[in-house]
Design brief:
By secondary structure, the chain is α/β, with parallel strands linked by helices. It folds into 2 domains: about 65-80 and about 115-240 and about 275-470 and about 805-810, 3-Layer(aba) Sandwich (Rossmann fold), CATH 3.40.50.2000; about 475-795, Glycogen Phosphorylase B (Rossmann fold). The chain has a 9-stranded mixed β-sheet with strand order 7-10-11-4-1-12-13-17-18. Strand 10 (about 215-225) and strand 11 (about 230-240) form a beta hairpin. Helix 1 crosses helix 4 (about 95-105), helix 9 (about 285-310) crosses helix 11 and helix 22 packs across helix 29 (about 720-730). Bound molecules: N-[(biphenyl-4-yloxy)acetyl]-beta-D-glucopyranosylamine. N-[(biphenyl-4-yloxy)acetyl]-beta-D-glucopyranosylamine binds near residues 363 and 369. Its cofactor is pyridoxal 5'-phosphate. This is Alpha-1,4 glucan phosphorylase. One of its GO terms (molecular function) is 1,4-alpha-oligoglucan phosphorylase activity.
Amino acid sequence: KVEDRAASDADAAAAIKEAILNKLIYSVGKSLEAASSHDWFVATAFVARDRIVERWLASIDEVNRTGRKQVYYLSVEFLIGRLLFDALTNMEMVEPTRAALFALGVDLDELREVEPDAALGNGGLGRLAACFMESLATLSIAAFGYGIRYDHGLFRQRIKDGRQLEYPEEWLAFGNPWEFQRPEVDYEIGFGGRIEAEHQPDGTVKHVWLPGETVEAVAYDTPIAGWRGAHINTLRLWSARAPDPLRLDKFNSGDHVGALMDQVRAESISKVLYPGDTTPAGQELRLRQEFFFASASLQDLVLRHLRQHGGILSLADKVAIQLNDTHPAIAVAELMRILVDLHDVPWRDAWAITQATFGYTNHTLLPEALETWPVPLMERLLPRHMQIIYLINAIHLDQASKLADSTGERLAAISLIDEAHGRRVRMGHLAFLGSHKVNGVSRLHSDLLKVTVFRELDAVLPGRITNKTNGVTFRRWLKEANPGLTSLLTEVVGDRLLDDARLLEKVAAVAGDAAFQERYAAERRANKVALAKLVRHRLGIKIDPDALFDVQIKRIHEYKRQILNILETIAVYDMIRAQPMRDWIPRVKIFSGKAAASYATAKLIIQLANDVAKIVNADPTVRGILKVVFLPNYNVSLAERIIPAADLSEQISTAGMEASGTGNMKLALNGALTIGTLDGANVEIREKVGADNIFIFGLTAEEVEAHRHRGIDGSDAINRSAKLAEVLEAIASGVFSPDEPDRYRGLVDILIHHDYFMVTADFESYYEAQRAVFRRWRDKRSWWRAAALNTAHMGWFSSDRTIAEYAKDIWDVPVKPPGRG
Ligand code: 26M
């Protein structure tokens, strides 16, 4: 048996080696001698892609033959990262490919680093979409992801003199081996123009939209392989083109720039990802992006449905469309236009089909992040959609006004038009009305939806709001990121670990076992050594792999409270300076994350972290007991390096403000203990891992609300905490910015007088929780037991579980779990 296995592995490696050489020569056009790392990467990617394509075509064929229901996931962001190891892992090709390349004198792990990240997303929302695509394929659900093929993904971050600088991102500079351009799949997307009303003989009116401008959407397809390659789905991203790219008349008359104007205007739509993750951009171009991809996607799926099933009236039986936040919410009006204007479906039937087809996922409660568009802008850019929205609203308000307890105030709150801020269309309300199910992304968040943004809509349309707690794909975030730990876990739970993540529960039985703990800790240490090497290489900072790695990695935001973490860092720094010879426990504070370019306070927080790092790391009295590291340019690939090496996971948002979090899940899965508030999915993580194996502190969501009612002045909390007062005084007086002592005055003033995010209110309890972390860390047996129990109990947070719930409760499609054979 063992010999058979070895022989077939050798055969597999030999076949892959031949295939790679073939690709290198005939598809890349390079000789063995001339090939660069990138050439080898492309050749290897092509070999993996070939295997995927075979199954892809089979999957498409199967779906067509059976005519089963299709899921469409509409997302303006897909934060994919690299794809090579996703492809190799899920096609079960990693080891033979490694051997094949080795025989050619090439190191697979070196090739891995050559691939640029596809960073077509800002943070959690975009990464969730990428995890979902993988789980959809893993569960053999027939699904498409629809999004935008941005020429430039999220900006590249550099830190200069402690400050963030943004540079354009160039993921397509060397081509993209994973995608297939489909020039024949293109749709016209209209903007502006006017409506013609044609009176029909039967007394009805037919509306014809005559756009003043059109842009073309061209499809680019990337196959997404599920675990063990059983099913392959398509990620279809749209790129914008001008219908008439060159105005020859202008060119010939010498106006060379004017000749290209239309092209530039059209192509600007898919040029760049908007970099704000919670502050709506509010510009016309953003609305154009949203309509562009929503319309192209709907045209595409309606055409597919008509080809497969003949008539439009069966749409809701065969199609489920999930709106990833409100960014594609205009699709509700666009589907109504397609049904009513283009297919003559009566309004009432069209509305029933629309509602039965759409589901809407909300990802944030932050008021400033809820999308609204000015009515005049909508009227100018999408005049027919604006009419449709008015009609949806009129019927909706009419129905609601007949309810017994209807008041003017209630009607104003549920209206699609916000009249209080200069007439704006509420996209969240449109998505809510147009969907049969609306979900939040953690239990707490879904509960809060019902008492905050959608309070009145929930009263009028009860039962529509449900919960779908987020999850992450364990193929990427366990196996690919942490292969050593995964092997150890597989020994314990068996090799069906990635088929059924709940098998991880078996790890609980050995979590207290000394021999197991030793091996678990050894895997973790190897990851820490690797991260230490990366930090040394990139920043020239030496960190001790035996120190506690305390990690906060996420977008920089006031509500995520990186500043609370920095305040505690400074408090510890002060203590070490006061008593340098005590037996301090070495600790490394690791920060990584980007700030929206326009978010001045977030950028100042980055600078503060870097300034504190500079002072602390250079202080001889600290002697390396405390190190502070800010790793620039946080992205998916860097996350894959940091997460397996983290001991402590900082999830310290103001309670009630982080919808879910997903980094929290990846970190706990890989054995970091969480220090966190009762916010987002932390609440459910505590339930699963047990209150003894997580460090919870701070105000609850309810208490935050009550506290805010009493006022948001921080002075009282500061007066009660000498430590906090001392830290704030140090920052404000320029201890960390000697070159510009007033640099952080404004930041400190916010905390003293306008502490909306409750940093001062939570400081003491956070500080105490950190001390509890240290006490636990001193008892290594207890620490590793808790870490192993975190891994053991995180199985529920697999995105396979999340997607299975969507399939059952929202989409009504069957799932087929993966498995051998
Ligand atoms: C809007 C307009 C213009 C430009 C950008 C945006 C925009 C982009 C992303 C607004 C919000 C965006 O994302 C919100 C988000 O990422 N929410 C996060 O979703 C995760 C997945 O559900 C949760 O885990 C996080 O808690 C939540 O913050």
